[in-house]
Design brief:
alpha+beta; 2 domains; disordered N terminus; 2,3-Dihydroxybiphenyl 1,2-Dioxygenase, domain 1
Length: 278
Amino acid sequence: MTEAPQPADDSGEAHARYTPGTPCWVSLMVHDVAAALDFYGELFGWEFAPGPVRLGPYVRARLDGREVAGIGALPPDRHLPVAWTPYLACDDVDLAAEAVRLSGGTVGVGPLDADAAGRLAIGSDPSGAVFGLWQAAAHLGTAVRGVPGTPAWNELRTFETANVAKFYAGLFRYEERRSEAGAADRVPGSSSSSGDHVTLCLDGRPVAGIRGLGSTLPRERGPHWMTYFDVTDVDGTLDRLAGLGGQVLAPARDTERGRVAVVADPEGARFALLERAG
């Protein structure tokens, strides 16, 4: 779960364009934006600034003035799941979207311009998991990593890894690194450890994961991307989350990567908290 998405200075501030295929941004679409801002502002210490007007009611979350994530309003006439969505960097979103279609995925939104920020599309892989594509212009993506309140990792949770890994590798030429998961890597919220795990790498760097859960994948959720957020104290954050109306889906447990818990916000959007080991 160690991510090195792009160059950063000693403060963790990103300062270069993301390599194509790297998760470069995470965005949450909700029914009640004001309530979401209150929740995440209190949970992670985020402040907010307006985002692209083209995206409707949409704001960018900031830490010390540096952008880390986005929150927007779901169209009232569309019944879509409330979920965190990772965006994969690309040089040409139109070509990438066409590659998604040709590889068995679907494109539900775009490609379209997000004002001067860049160009985007939102699609789903053959298993149904939703992800975004981002062609940067003025907005490169998440501007700081490795500090509390920032995205730490993105992992696809699905039934099996082989076919879906082939889909993503066809889009961005990922190198696939398979690993055996022992008891220490048991997935929070699952009753058993999972050895069906692939790390997607670019130029030897881990950038995302795919974990096959088989029959233990939650039926009510189906295949989905899970975003992990850095925190300094998982247990303390869980107490704060509960007080803000969130829900603990899988209690904190120690793994080889650190202490992890799976949670949901008041509208049901799932995400994970990671207190790094060491």
